[in-house]
């Protein structure tokens, strides 16, 4: 269940109330005339089942409330209301499966921001992955995978492509490229310094059976990336954040970047190319799977209300 607060000009507030009252997925409608000061207008509150939120939010947007008022949405963890229960029952599908597209748009937009925290997490993850490659320690590789924040921009890119939002997609690409470039640059400098003082040497990359998978991309790398992309998008749309850990561990983006960054100063040129291919294969698999998964979810949720209406008519 979601709680929606709308600030609307007085001339539009009755229309907002009508939209809320006429929708079976809405309950607990409250109108407070003239209470809003900035922007000025009326305030309307109501609860809506997640499964029916898209239709309501779309109608509110069409009223121009983004420009002339405000729409705020928040999650309701607990409600004690027969009216709310009836609204949930009337809405098609299950709340766990529902995708609120406005919510996903806001989340993916936030994931594309090139912040210091994003850069630091990615730099640290790539550094750990590089050390794991040098020491042939899979546990360090796994730790680096979990720490890497790169799936956020990947999901944003998928959403941007699906929505034909060139700005969002371009921002996601910029964040990915800038983040990986910064991580490679820092790790490269650290690797050069480490070689200069004798901490690392080329032979450390010669024989490492436990982490050699990083430089051997194959069809299974692509298959795993596709599966991880599907799981990652589903974990975001279903709000199952715990599942994202499995996604991070499944893909080899951060380890590939870490291996690439240490292969250059140690002059393992064949590994530079192999690491880049591994990175490209994993990104391509996740992006392709993410776009297809979002497209299927959108098609299903557009079709589901029609199916429910047909069933009700038949009954």
From TrEMBL:
Database matches in Pfam families: DUF389
Keyword tags: Membrane, Transmembrane, Transmembrane helix
Listed transmembrane segments: 116-135, 141-163, 175-200, 220-237, 244-264, 276-296
Name this protein carries in UniProt: DUF389 domain-containing protein
Organism: Glycomyces terrestris
């Amino acid at each position: 269940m979601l709680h929606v607060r709308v600030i609307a000009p007085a001339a539009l507030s009755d229309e907002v109330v009508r939209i809320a009252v006429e929708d079976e997925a809405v309950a607990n409608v409250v109108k407070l005339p003239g209470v809003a000061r900035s922007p000025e207008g009326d305030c309307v509150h109501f609860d809506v089942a997640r499964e029916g939120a898209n239709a309501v939010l779309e109608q509110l947007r069409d009223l121009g409330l983004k420009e002339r008022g405000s729409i705020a949405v928040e999650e309701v963890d607990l409600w004690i209301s027969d009216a709310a229960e009836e609204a949930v029952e009337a809405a098609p599908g299950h709340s766990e499966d529902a995708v609120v597209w406005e919510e996903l748009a806001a989340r993916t937009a936030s994931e594309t921001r090139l912040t210091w925290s994003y850069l630091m997490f990615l730099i640290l993850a790539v550094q750990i992955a590089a050390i794991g490659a040098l020491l042939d320690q899979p546990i360090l590789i796994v730790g680096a995978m979990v720490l890497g924040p790169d799936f956020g921009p990947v999901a944003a890119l998928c959403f941007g492509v699906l929505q034909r939002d060139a700005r969002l997609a371009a921002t996601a690409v910029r964040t990915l490229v800038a983040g990986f470039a910064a991580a490679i640059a820092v790790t490269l400098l650290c690797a050069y310094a480490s070689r200069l003082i004798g901490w690392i040497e080329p032979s450390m990359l010669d024989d490492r059976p436990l982490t050699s998978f990083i430089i051997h991309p194959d069809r299974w790398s692509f298959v795993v990336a596709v599966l991880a992309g599907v799981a990652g998008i589903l974990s975001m749309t279903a709000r199952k954040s715990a599942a994202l850990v499995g996604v991070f561990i499944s893909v080899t983006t951060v380890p590939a970047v870490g291996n690439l960054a240490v292969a250059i100063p140690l002059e393992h040129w064949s590994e530079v190319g192999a690491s880049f291919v591994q990175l490209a294969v994993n990104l391509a698999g996740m992006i392709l799977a993410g776009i297809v998964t979002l497209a299927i979810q959108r098609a299903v949720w557009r079709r589901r209300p029609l199916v429910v209406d047909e069933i009700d008519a038949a009954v």
